[in-house]
Design goal:
Layout: H1 3-15, H2 18-25, H3 29-43, E1 48-51, E2 54-57, H4 59-83, E3 89-95, H5 97-103, H6 105-114, E4 118-124, H7 127-135, E5 141-145, E6 153-161, E7 163-168, E8 183-186, H8 192-203, E9 210-213, H9 217-225, E10 231-234, E11 247-251, E12 259-266, H10 272-295
Length: about 300
Amino acid sequence: MDLSELRIFSTVVREGGITRAAERLHRVQSNVTTRIRQLEDDLGTPLFARQGKRLHLTPSGQMLLGYADRLLALADEARAAVHDPRPRGVFRLGAMESTAAVRLPKPLNQFHQLYPHVVLELRIGNPEILAKAILAGELDAAFVAEPIADAPFEKLHAFSEEPVIVSANDLASIGKKAGAPRSVLVFGNGCPHRKRLEDWYAKRGEMPERTIELGSYHAMLGCVVAGMGIALLPESVLTTFPESKRLNIHRLPRGENRSDTVLIWRRGAGSPNIQALQQVLREDSAALRGGANRRN
């Protein structure tokens, strides 16, 4: 049973017979008759009771008609949606926790105001997990920190962050002279900020003695305030932490103090939803640059 057979079946019912249905469908009568018989053979039941040249729906045919009409209407709706350039439907986004908490509320609110017929879904994860989810068809797009592989994805620069190391107030300095703290607070493997902190230790010829994995930035920062270790995270996250005055911020050297977040999607799979989000991000970025220029 396929859509073309259902359309022929529905047309025969609506037109009241094979002859008029064939004219409507621009087919020869024998073809219409054959397709109806094939549909009956497939379902294993007669759909029409034949009385001379007249056809009457059997109870099975009457039941199928309701389903056929719904399936054909849904197929027409799907066809229209595929060719509709307007954003619509479910939009499955991924993001790192810091991006979701600090950077996304404004642009996603703007997106929602502009495109109320789009249903946003958000998944949190590290770049490795989110990239795999896109390639598996589980996400449409995601915000991830560079570096990310170029070949499978298309990208748009979204945000720039300054990663900083944070410690409790009683730790005035860190580095070669003061020595690197023995404990670090991090997310699980795959987190780009964890990798950056590990690289920071490696460049100084040191390794932390204790690595504590946590599931959220606020938990991580709370443990830093308590003196359990240091953490590396985007400085923008500190604006959401009410106890940030209890932290010392240690800035990274030039060349290590920038992290770029990009919007990625599968190459060749740019949908109207993704295009609309790109436009919102571009306009938001232009507004920020304009504001910065006016202040200068």
